[in-house]
Amino acid sequence: MRRKTRRETIDPAEVYGGRSVLITGGLGFIGSSLAHRLVELGAVVDLVDAMVPNCGGNPFNIDRIRDRVGVHIADIDDREMTETMVRGRDFIFDLVGHVSHIDSLTDPQLDLRINCRCPLVLLEACRKHNPSAAVLFAGTRGQYGRTVKLPVTESHPLRPIDVNGVNKLASEMHHLLYHRLYGLRVCSLRLTNTFGPRHIMKHSRQGFLNWFIRLAMDDETLPVYGEGSQLRDFNYVDDVVEAMLLALAGEETSGRAFNLGGGRAVSLLDSARAVVAACGSGRIQHVPYPPEKQAIEVGDYWADHGLFTSVTGWQPVVPFEEGLRRTVAFYRDHREHYWGPGHDPAV
Amino acid sequence: MRRKTRRETIDPAEVYGGRSVLITGGLGFIGSSLAHRLVELGAVVDLVDAMVPNCGGNPFNIDRIRDRVGVHIADIDDREMTETMVRGRDFIFDLVGHVSHIDSLTDPQLDLRINCRCPLVLLEACRKHNPSAAVLFAGTRGQYGRTVKLPVTESHPLRPIDVNGVNKLASEMHHLLYHRLYGLRVCSLRLTNTFGPRHIMKHSRQGFLNWFIRLAMDDETLPVYGEGSQLRDFNYVDDVVEAMLLALAGEETSGRAFNLGGGRAVSLLDSARAVVAACGSGRIQHVPYPPEKQAIEVGDYWADHGLFTSVTGWQPVVPFEEGLRRTVAFYRDHREHYWGPGHDPAV
After folding, report:
1. CATH hierarchy code of domain A18-337
2. Most buried residue, A269, B171, B243, B286, by CB count within 10 Å?
């Protein structure tokens, strides 16, 4: 007899239906995708987003659910506002941040504020005003730095090689401390390259894959650094959303950090080829590695998500190529809200 | 033939004489002690201190050298001021911070600002306006968290168990990144329990030893938690000052982190006994561990400083008991500037 996995025994509608949920960074890529799913599950959803330029917040991301969520344009750094916002919530998905590795070097203070200070304001607010809330922290593969062993498990050394990775690591440590010291229910998921609809498309600094999709859709040239043999691990956003729901559904994830992953490693070159195939346009050109990117290149990355699977039953279910297909279809329908003529450059 | 150590071959007066030195936290315990030594060596010394209450800044700390140093009451968080201050410096000792473990839990935002944000402002200022300066970062044993192997070497796991330790670890990582990415000359020394003259004496939250000295000098009772068998590693401040001078004297320390240590472990109970003996007054009482301190107790700590010794020749030369004797003598002469009647409580 097959062992029942968590996914089969936990019904997200039962966990989240009618419950109060706060999503920070709620107008961003993952936050807004999560919001759609939670609305579908019958949760009472509030979104807060500071709409920091170039971070991914986009009003169109919640176009379909605008009448069914509360929207608050505000900064988590505003302590009083945040204290008010956390009160009475059952679940808090803290998806502020996730700015780019390159940006974290050009403006390290902003990265520290968004990725370290804001989450600490939220944790303090929870400790003081809602210690029973469950809080999800979005970690990153960047916390590991250069990989020394593949696939990467949670016990891999944590030696980030850019400011963003350092700040994310510190923030995850703050979260786990708040669990240990104050009993807050927190869980960290260390995300790998997440892609899909609602991603920012106006610049390339939040991951190359969505940028490649834009270039290919515009029938332009996809620049592949070097031979493109570096391995990456991709997660389609819907799989990440399901992981986040499972992460806060039970107690056994509390005070722990888990890897997410797509279950397979894809080379940069192969990912570019798959994008061109999915779009039916665009072409690939090999170019030399830009020195500023070489310095923060982590080498191959491939996550072992076995620990999270063993605890929650989660599995990525959308194959890479299928995720690409859905992503391209979304942007074909809604391109004007993300780039090109008609796109509001302020978004 | 005995191998020559670094300390024998490097003359600090030759390295620092006539050179421009900036000390942040310059009116504090270690900063002001370092300032005295640098003035003696003929350096041109500027001190900057925000005089954040309860952090240790005390004008009397530089009473003897007031006419031979520049003093700037300012906050490193003020980016423009900091950019101005770093220009033209040969050496920068960044001794802002070092607030208490307990305080870091009651005001984690302040700890993050002082221990993480301010040093990052300084690093950015150096990168942009003085990339050839040598920068010292004061790390802490708190970066290791609960010790799993004694004595602790630099390869011990870094798993801090309080907010202060997390923030210090993140800041050290920022420093080492700035070396790797931009070639800044940075060195981190992970300090253990440093004690001596000029330490803040008005509260017990920056280490228990100086507090014990105050209590014993006032013929009061020294509370020893539990049996007092926990091991600690003490460094007299003059030894720490010499270590800092050596840390920036050469290139081979650049981009690296080193432990300091006193070379021997002393139990809390034995340290209390030594304080009572040095003062000729006071008494010891065993008391239960306060729960808020138990939660952030790291267990025994004893540093292996062999790596730093092998690179620089540094050795602690002031025995624990001799350090206590000098410390007590200092406070006997200057008590009114640190506590009790006549002490300005604003300091």
Report:
1. 3.40.50.720
2. B171
